Amino acid sequence: MAAYAPVNFQSTLTGAMQLVNAALQTACCQGLYGTAATRANGFAPGTVAQQLFGNGNAAVTVGGSLLTSTFVSAGPVAPVALTLGTPSPLVNVAVFINTSQLVNDTWDTAITLLHELGHVYNDVPSSGGSQISRGLSDFNGANDNLIVQDCLINKPTQ
Ligand SMILES: [Zn+2]
């Protein structure tokens, strides 16, 4: 068994990762994450996304930084997702995904994973950063609009 937690999220995550992996094969979506140089040197976003999210809870070292993901059923009040970066001595980045708010919604899960992936790049300077930024664009929807526009324009019918 893979490390999915909770287990009822497995099919949602599988469907979302199909969208994420397809998106991150396009130059347009890749362009949101890092630079051409960093993408060619350990920070290919498709690889990072697959390692960090593809099999549920994960802990992976990328470019000397420890990246973790935790999928947790935190209920309807807690945030959909949260990414916390600790800058010293090495950069550790922890992503939390609230499966309660995403279960059975592959579309919103894909947006959420691509959004938090941007914050991972924000928090790891050697990744080259991300056009997904913290602050206003988190609250006015600009980040998610950018993700839909550059990564997920062809919404599948469900
Ligand atoms: Zn955000």
The structural class is alpha+beta
Average pLDDT confidence is 92
Specify Rg, calculated over alpha carbons: 14 Å
Question: What distance lies between the first and last C-alpha atoms, to the nearest angstrom?
Answer: 27 Å
Q: What share of residues are in beta strands?
A: 15-25%
Helix content: 25-40%
Bound molecules: zinc ion
Shape: globular
The tally of strands reads 4
Low-confidence stretches: none
The string of secondary-structure elements, in order, is HHHHEEEEHHH
Give me the side-by-side strand order of the main sheet: 1-2-4-3
Largest sheet: 4 strands, mixed
User: What is the count of helical runs?
Assistant: 7
Count of discrete structural domains: 1
In brief, what are we looking at here?
By secondary structure, the chain is an alpha+beta fold. Helices cover 40% and strands 16% of the residues.
What does this protein structure show overall?
The protein is α+β, with helices and mostly antiparallel strands and 158 residues long. It has one domain (7-151). Helix content is 40%, strand content 16%. The protein has 7 helices and 4 strands. It has helices at 10-23, 27-30, 36-39, 45-53, 106-123, 136-139, 142-151, and strands at 58-62, 65-72, 81-86, 92-98. Strands 1-2-4-3 form a 4-stranded mixed β-sheet, covered by helices on one side. A hairpin with a 5-residue loop joins strand 3 (81-86) and strand 4. Helix 1 runs antiparallel to helix 4, helix 1 crosses helix 5 and helix 5 (106-123) packs across helix 7 (142-151). The longest helix is centred in the last third of the chain and has 18 residues, at 106-123. It is globular, with a radius of gyration of 14 Å. It starts with 9 loop residues before the first helix and ends in a 7-residue tail after the last helix. The mean pLDDT is 92. The structure holds zinc ion.
